[in-house]
Amino acid sequence: MAKGDDKKWNSEWDSGDGSVFWQKEWRLYLTKLQPCISHPLAWKPRKILRPPKKFEDLFSRYFHRDCLSCSKSPSMPIICLFCGELLCLDECCNTTRYRDSERTMKYTVSEIEAHSEACSSSAGLFISITSSMIIVSRANKAAIWGTVYLDSHKEEDRNLKRGKPLYMCETRLKWLEYDWAEQEWQRVYAWFNMQHQTSFINTIRECHLHHHH
Ligand SMILES: [Zn+2]
Ligand SMILES: [Zn+2]
């Protein structure tokens, strides 16, 4: 693990709303994208931001911060793992779209779907800071991946029920990076259509009760 990475997270990410950090990441992304432009069909996945070593650092930095879309403190806050923006998983930030030009057939788009479209080619990765779980999204579907944070005994603390200090596990992060690069989500056991957002949110709220290995 490169020491510089942690420093980057701690200093730049720490120093405000994360926009400086985001701009740097974005420029880096564009630079990396250049070789792909001659092969427009080659999809180059965005690089996952390195999560802080201590979960507590992530939690304290974001908890009670307002969502940029609804200006409220989210009850189910999630952070984009590519740009670091805080989003709501709740219905408050859903948007309405229309399938037809007469605007008769409307449908709802969740904030994670809209954000992923703009940020990461409709395939999103988020961390839920009230549960410590990673959320994967693909267009209008979302799923729980698992967690990259474990306690000192290498055990998960889903929904932070035991309140033990959690540390980022390098092995789990490598699994996540691999799954993301390959877009292979074999560790995921159920995909939810975000039209049924409430059942997905309830599944996260209860994920400490159902442990899948
Ligand atoms: Zn993002
Ligand atoms: Zn919101």
Task: Walk me through what this model shows.
The structure is a single chain. The chain has 213 residues and is an alpha+beta fold. The chain has 6 helices and 10 strands. It has one domain (49-205). It has a 6-stranded antiparallel beta sheet with strand order 2-1-5-6-7-10, covered by helices on one side. The protein is globular and about 60 Å long. Bound molecules: zinc ion (2 copies). Residues 67, 69-70, 74, 88, 92-93, 111 line the site of one zinc ion.
Task: Tell me the layout of helices and strands.
Elements: H1 3-13, H2 19-33, H3 55-62, E1 77-80, E2 86-88, E3 95-98, E4 106-109, H4 111-119, E5 123-128, E6 134-138, E7 141-146, E8 149-150, E9 167-168, H5 170-182, E10 191-193, H6 197-205
Antiparallel strand pairs: 1-2, 1-5, 3-4, 5-6, 6-7, 7-10, 8-9
Bound molecules: zinc ion (ZN) (2 copies).
